[in-house]
Amino acid sequence: MASPPRTPWRSLLTPAWIAGHLLAIAVVVSFSNFGAWQLRRHEQRVEQNALIEARLAEPPVRLETALAAVEAERRASANAGDPDPLAYRRVRVTGHFDPEHEVLRRPVSRDGTPGFHVVTPLVLADGSAVLVERGWVPQQYDRVPLDAAPPPAGEVTIDALAFAGDRPPSGAWAALAPRDPPDVVLTQVAYVDPVRLAEQVPYPLQPLRLVLDAEPRPPGDRRLPLPPVAPEVTLGPHLGYAIQWYGFVAVVVIGYAALMRRRYREAAAAGAGAAGAGTEVEPVSAPPGRP
């Protein structure tokens, strides 16, 4: 008696196919998580942009007012998740520049040309100072003080965007990041770090840095330093990356489903052929009395 044909689905439950199923599931889960992560990054960027735009729309305030607002938000836990609650706050400060203690922040590229940002202390009325990134100069201007890009003399009032002071990164990848050498007088820095630079100036430094919010110049005005580029509020590539990851998920699901369907059809056809080949025709016995 012929054995019953194997069901085609059993062909998809061999050890090799089970390993393939597990691999496909792992890929789909991983790619889906990557897509969800990029969506979260996109949502965070949208929230951050809304905050930046709100701060940029505000009129400049005194530095003391901005610092007091940050402290009040901190006490109310309103900026607990903000890595830089000072960022993009517009401030107005008055003092006099001290070019004798300025440094160059590296590397800062502009229109594809390497260069530096000139960072000059602005000495305030209380005797402290704040580090101000005044603008960009080409790479050949690598010695300070910069006679080719002097700051205004005498007492000045500037508008600027406030940011927390830079700090060298820490953690597992810190060894790969650029470093400012310790125990030397720095003239070029990778980080505008008020704690580190306070060691080489004769006055206390405020724990922040300012980026000059200069008035737009007429076309062709190339006086150095060129003013810092205005901040661009963009959404970044996160939404596009999320779509790509979910597209990869769709490719894997559709492709693997098509592969299983083809294997199922092959197994079904093979089973039908085996069933046909195994059918036997029973001989017809002759009637009694006939040879």
Keywords:
18% strand, five-stranded mixed beta barrel, 8 strands, 2 domains, disordered C terminus
Give the helix/strand layout.
Layout: H1 15-57, E1 61-62, H2 63-75, E2 89-97, E3 103-105, E4 115-123, E5 129-138, E6 155-164, E7 188-189, H3 194-197, E8 205-212, H4 238-277
Parallel strand pairs: 1-2, 3-7, 5-8
Antiparallel strand pairs: 2-4, 2-6, 3-4, 4-5, 6-8
Helix pairs in contact: 1-4
Provide an overview of this structure.
This protein is α/β, with parallel strands linked by helices and 291 residues long. The protein folds into 2 domains: 1-59 and 235-273; 89-230, no CATH class. The protein is built from 4 helices and 8 strands; from the N terminus they run H-E-H-E-E-E-E-E-E-H-E-H. The protein has helices at 15-57, 63-75, 194-197, 238-277; strands at residues 61-62, 89-97, 103-105, 115-123, 129-138, 155-164, 188-189, 205-212. The protein has a 5-stranded mixed barrel. Helix 1 packs antiparallel against helix 4. It starts with 14 loop residues before the first helix and ends in a 14-residue tail after the last helix.
